[in-house]
Structure formats: structure tokens, C-alpha cells
Amino acid sequence: MTEPEREGNSMAYDLITMGRIGVDLYPLQTGVPLPQVTSFGKFLGGSATNVAVAAARLGRDTAVITRTGEDPFGEYLHQALRDFGVDDRWVTPVPGLATPITFCEVFPPDDFPLYFYRRPKAPDLEIDAHELDLEAIREAGIFWVTGTGLSEEPSRTATLAALAHRAKAGTTVFDLDWRPMFWTDPAAARPFYEEALRHTTVAVGNLDEVEVATGVREPHAAAEALLAAGVELAVVKQGPKGVLAVHRDGTTAEVPPLPVNVLNGLGAGDAFGGSLCHGLLEGWDLERIMRHANAAGAIVASRLECSSAMPTAREIEAAVTAGEVR
Predict the structure, then answer these.
(1) Predicted local distance difference test score (pLDDT) of residue 6
(2) Cβ pair 311, 271 in contact under 8 A
(3) What is the CATH architecture of 4-317?
(4) CB–CB of 238/207 below 8 Å?
(5) DSSP state of 107
């Protein structure tokens, strides 16, 4: 959307995400240890940001709330967001902090170590509750927050304040997003996860993440625990076993993964999230939502990069129809 169309927030966004942003530096050689890598590709990164990009690629009107350093990498991220069609009006600089950099190693099919450079503190953890556009958050079709946003202040208070103001208006998604390097231990995280779950309608996480949030690892039991915590829809990603989704009304969908030659598994969850949001906004039935989200994740897993690899609706539909990623 252009700025004039957005004056006074007269139009609601399809999706607003809030959370991490940074620069991903991915090795252009696969199966090579980081000390021996000689060339890297530079990409927009950060889970909440990638979800906004994934939904924008599917035609959704999206924005992200986050912060960068006041540096050239921050300028790069603004330009990348605009190029992907994501509104960057709520992406603001933090003087004195550097834009985060993330390196990875690529050892297909299932080993992708991440190295986060977010010290002394990442700017996206400096989101302040007093600077939030709470009405825009409340009016959005979907509002998406992450577990990482709860790991430090003032981002923690800002995330919980945004959730409390939205008060489950529309669909509110909590991406459990457990990153152990950002916390002292799971026990420290659980009270904040429980508070966030009280304000959200959809919870999304893998087995490790649902265990942190609920203390339960078995997928069906974890889904029930998430529903008991206050959400209406629990989505449990099970890796090679596919995805389980359970709605409070009793509807259940358990969908196997699509066959795929994995090149880089990083970013697949963000593609899943963007497609999930698209399906929820479309009002699709639960199984269709999960099949399309699974396919979106599989497509990105077959590609090296994350943000620029997000699939189009036509690519996802083709994969669902074929039953595989080609």
C-alpha cells in the first residue's frame, strides 16, 4: 500500500508481525564448515520478518514491528522490506546498537547450525510499549508475536501490552519460537509463555517449543495443553512426521510432510507461518490450511535462502497438487 492510502490507519493490514529482524549471511557452498567457506549470500532475516515476507508473497498486505541498528545493514533491511512489499513504517533505528547478523552452516538434509551475533543486545529487543500503534495492532486481520520477543525487556512488556490491547480481536498468533541461547533456561521462559497464551487465539510450535510452553512433548497432549492455556487452535509441527492441528471445536488435521530434497531447512517454518496466515485469512478448512502451509515450508527447505525463497500461491498449489516439491 502507498503512504496516502495508509493515512490515519484508515485501512487495516492483513497481517502485522512483531519480533526479530537481521541480516542472514548464508554460505554459498553447502557441506562446507564455516571456517572453510569462502563466499556468502546476504539476505533479509528474522523469523517474524520472514513471516511477513512470506504472507506478502501470497498477496497479503503486511507490516512488521521491529528495530534495527542505525547503520548500513539497517538501511539494507529497510530496502529489502520495501522490495518484498512489506510496510516498514514501524521499523525504527536504535542508536548505539548494531543490526544483528546471523551466520549458518549448511549440511543437508538436517544439520543447519546457526550463529547469532546479537550482543550486547539486539535492537529488536528494544521495542518499547509506548511507541506501539496499538490501534493498528488491534485492527489487523492477524497479529503475530514470537517467543523471542518475551526474552528481554523492554520487548517483553511491549509484546504483552500489544497482546493485552488486542484482546483476541481477530486472529492473534503466538509463534512459540524457542531459542535457548536467548534464555537462561526453559523454566524462566514458561511464565511469560503462559501469559502470552492467555491473549492469543493460535499457538504454533515444534516439539521442543510446545514442551517449553506446556511441559508436555507428546503432540496430541501438547495440543490439548495449549488449548487449555487459552488458544483456539494449536499447531504442532512434528518434522518428518508432518503437522498436527487441533481446534477447540474438535476439528483435527494431521498432515504428512511433502517429499523434498532438503537444501537448507532454515526458513521453512517462516514460510509455513506466512501460508498459515494466508489460509486463516481466506477462511479455508483446517486440513487445507495445513497442506498448503506444509507445502510452503517444503518449498523453502529445497532452496538455499529464506526471505527471497518464499513461494508464490501458484508454486504452493502446484506442490500440493503434485504431492511433492519438484
Answers:
(1) 52
(2) yes
(3) 3-Layer(aba) Sandwich (3.40)
(4) yes
(5) B
